[in-house]
Amino acid sequence: MYPKDSKLVDQLLYEMATKPILHT
Hints:
Strand content: under 5%
Number of helices: 1
Shape: elongated
Radius of gyration: 10 Å
Structural class: mainly alpha
Order of helices and strands: H
Low-confidence stretches: none
Oligomer: single chain
């Protein structure tokens, strides 16, 4: 989708996948 933000999105997905969902 966004090549520029690909790393940013990947990092977000990584953290979301590794960290438990504490925020709603």
